[in-house]
Amino acid sequence: MIGSITTGFGNTLASIGIVIGLGVAIGKILEVSGAADALARKFVKVLGRGREHWAMAGTGAVVSIPVFCDSGYVIMNPLARSIARRLRGRYVTLALALGCGMTVTHHLVPPTPGPLGVAGILGADLGGLILAGLVFALLLLPVVVVYAAWIGPKLESEISPQVREAVYSGAAASTAPGARAAGGSAGLGADDLDGGEPLKEEPPATDLGEAPPGAKPHRVGFGLAAVPLLVPLLLIVLNTVTTAIDRNAQGVLSPTDEYTPSGFAAIMSFLGNPVVALVIGIILAVYLLLPRWTPRKRVHSWLADAAASAGLIILITGAGGALGQVLRDTGVGDELAEAVSSLALPSVLVPFLIASLVRIAQGSGTVAMITAASVSAPLVDTLGLSPLLAALACCAGSMVFSYFNDSYFWVVTRFTGLEGTAALRGWSGITTAVWAASLPLLLIASLFL
């Protein structure tokens, strides 16, 4: 038992611990330099007020195809915070839309490891699974947006004081954010929503140091502000793409087979590692976004503050990974899978329910879909399922009810500032909503596949 706890805790933090710390540090520099506000202003101007949660869900869905949910969410969360600060509300809606947009494509669209492994186990056509997964993701994104817009205002008052202060500290709002109903921007008047006077520029929230005589006022433009976010994402994407090409060239297609990158792929496997990519991102943030006259001690102080705020998130995320590992090692998921496979159910429901029950039992969506594929593989011919439909069922079923034994649950809820029942209503609820919505899509797909 102790071994399972330490293994789960260590494995989880090995993959996401440093990433969380670096991501929070980048977010801090974006905030104090004014870059986050520049990104938010541009976002709101281009999209128009009222549609920001659609953009967050779509952005999350695109980012999560080549980038792990955990890393992608940590990188993109500062943008959600800056938009919420600009709107003086709606942070829960934006954060949930971003997180679940990432969940949908992470579970349905290769080359993320879970769907890739399912395709290999079941012998499903990889190109077909990519296309079908993209179609499912596009049809499920409205569910993400609608649920986030419905539950977000209800939970806005539940945000923890620390996160509320971090998100809204620079907002010029006289009332608590989130008082407005779904669809509106909390704290904004009617003129703000209907094209009236734009929001006034807020004074800098942080002293960047004393400027030398004759120096121009410090201002960060949209293009420069985006660099610390886009460069890490681009490096991670290039790593994914070059690795896929190199694997194909070497004939190493299964994610479980031993693989050694070669040539340019070896370079990108280093630069595109999330830890290295985010280290590059924080270096860019410090040297591009802060004026040269900012004292070094002040920068150190900001980074120390970021490390302190990331500490609790890292520990709780590791604890979630430990719980999931304990449940996996006890074999609860395997027992449930075997029990479901013996029941008389409509064929497409067998892999779907196996994945769902395994996910609830042990927390990892990737493990759930791989387990469902392994158990279902001998039954595919007997059930009369096409490998592609069975793969879709395994992937869709694994999205259900993310909660305490899922490390991503803790990443999203800690960053969003939701605890207890609020976290369950928000994050567990939205993942269950897209899971439920995928079932009719599977039944329709079974008529054609």
Structural overview:
The chain is mainly alpha-helical and 449 residues long. It is 71% helix and 0% strand. It has helices spanning 2-33, 35-47, 52-63, 69-87, 91-108, 113-122, 126-155, 161-168, 190-193, 222-250, 264-271, 274-289, 296-329, 332-341, 349-362, 365-376, 380-383, 387-397, 407-416, 420-445. Helix 10 crosses helix 11 (264-271). It is globular. It starts with a helix and ends with a helix. Residues 172-206 have low confidence and may be disordered.
Notable traits:
mainly alpha; 449 residues
Residue-averaged pLDDT: 80
How widely separated are the two ends? 44 Å
Low-confidence stretches: 172-206
Helix content: over 70%
Order of helices and strands: HHHHHHHHHHHHHHHHHHHH
Let me know the largest β-sheet. Answer: none
Q: Structural class of the secondary structure composition?
A: mainly alpha
The radius of gyration is 22 Å
- In percent terms, what proportion of residues is strand? under 5%
| Contiguous helical run count | 20
Shape, principal axes of CA atoms: globular
Q: What is the total tally of β strands?
A: 0
